Amino acid sequence: MIQDEFERAAAWIRRYFEHPERYRVMPAIQPGEVTAALPSHAPETGEALEDIFADFERIVVPASTHWNHPRFFAYFATSAAPVAVAAEALAATLDAKAMLWRTSPAATELEQVTMRWLGHLLGLPSAWTGIIYDTASIAGFTALAAAREALDLGIRELGMAGRSLPALRVYITQETHSHVEKAAIVLGVGQRNVVRVACDEALRMRPDGLAAALEADCKAGLRPLAVVATVGTTSTTSTDPVRELAQVARRFGVWLHVDAAYAGIAAIVPEFRSLLDGVELADSLVVNPHKWMFVPMDCSALFVRDESMIRRAFSLVPEYLTTPEAGAVNYMDYGLQLGRRFRALKLWFVLRHFGAEGIRARLRGHIALAQEFAAWVRAQADWEVLAPHPLSVVCFRYAPPNLSEAALEELNARIMHAVNATGEVFLSHTKIGGRYAIRVAIGNLRTQRSDVEHAWNLLRREAGRAALAASDVVG
Ligand code: PLP
User: Fold this and answer.
1) Is pLDDT above 80 for 1?
2) Biggest alpha carbon distance in the chain?
3) Whole-model pTM above 0.70?
């Protein structure tokens, strides 16, 4: 019996990875359909594996958006290397709760080793410490909590309410990912104290703007908590000038967190190492192996200059969790969670399976495909690229002449939804300076040039149809 479930699952996974493109990328279903297909109560008695599996194939798989599909180009395209999926099954089998060294010696030490390997590949200072979290959002929250502790305002002991404290301020830009604002909300900073520093024309935080904001706030008696710079913003992959921002942050004694969730991984490639230029002057940095290093969700690596600041913010040891191993790392001291998954195993499998050169080759391939796609857009009349595209994301739109911004938005949204409705491709959008942009993000292990070409053909076909429909209306 036991063999059955594993053989069944393994066979299914093998078949899935042979042809993930056999599915629609995004299912053609409406909200509520999955719920309606399922019973309203859990079964009272156990069911046969055969029936459970049949429902998995009948209900779950067709209602899934397939991130492993080679024509998934939305958000940041990611994919799971099969070898890492195998590692996930092994990690689930060991079912370690990696909170204390003694509850998970291998998980603890493999995390230390893989974080050192990754830090070295990224060119980070060897004295920095890497810790794995589920997501960049939680890693960012953790870094900001450490930054708040570093202010020495007694917030850990006394809280923030009922005493006079200066308002704490966090500095970002309009391009910064929304998790930073969420972290500011839950850390008691408040949304109004999240300062949006102006960007230059390439959507990068302006160091002079940051210096001016810090200066004005300090004069007004406010207390800067942290600056968050982004390497590879979510909309366009623009990169803030980390070195200059770090110099400003240092001048004011403010914690600098670098959010390199997607693009930081590219620093493994020598010709893109400059993305992380100046990062050694920062206090913390996050990169997501689950975004662009073929590690399945979830695996986010936070690197910190001084790990004791994280422990100061989070360590709290009740009697039942005290341990006799002096000097051992207990990862429960590094965040909100107690029990933690054995995430380092899949990262270790990926690093060993591909080798650094294998990862570099794939990232270079993705970047080259994106550059080629941008060239196709540029070469086509009535299409335009809307932002610099240094990496594997291109923002663009169909822009026939004499249309208002509102009409262009309507038109491009229609084109994108029509393309997505085919189920053959999945794209997402953003706005850049108020202008609606379609995004093509390339980051999947299986994406070939023909997949990108297919997306481009569909886009032009749907643009043609939309233009025709519009002229019919006018006519
Ligand atoms: N930071 C950046 C720049 C992102 O683009 C994203 C998500 O796309 C995040 C943070 C959030 O990542 P996560 O889902 O790991 O929290």
Assistant:
1) no
2) 82
3) yes
DSSP annotation of 339 reads: S
Report how far ligand 1's centroid is from the alpha carbon of 432 (Å): 18
Q: Which of 449, 461, 448, 459 is nearest to 426 (CA)?
A: 459
- In sequence order, which residues have a C-beta less than 8 Å from that of residue 87 and are 6 or more positions away? 345, 346, 348, 349, 350
Q: 63 near 28, Cβ under 8 Å?
A: no
The CA-based angle 84-89-95, given to 5 degrees, is 120
The string of pLDDT tens digits covering residues 237-271 is 999 999 999 999 999 999 999 999 999 999 999 99
Which of 205, 238, 291, 297 has most ligand 1 atoms within 8 Å of CB, for mutation?
A: 291
Contact present, 115 and 129 (Cβ < 8 Å): yes
Encode pLDDT of 104-150 as tens digits: 999 999 999 999 999 999 999 999 999 999 999 999 999 999 999 99
C-alpha 86 to ligand 1 mean position (Å): 25
Query: Which residue carries 């085919």 as its tokens?
Result: 422
Q: Is the Cβ–Cβ distance between 330 and 101 less than 8 Å?
A: yes
Mean pLDDT of 81-86: 98
Residue 422 Cα to ligand 1 middle (Å): 27
Is 129's C-beta closer than 6 angstroms to any atom of ligand 1?
A: no
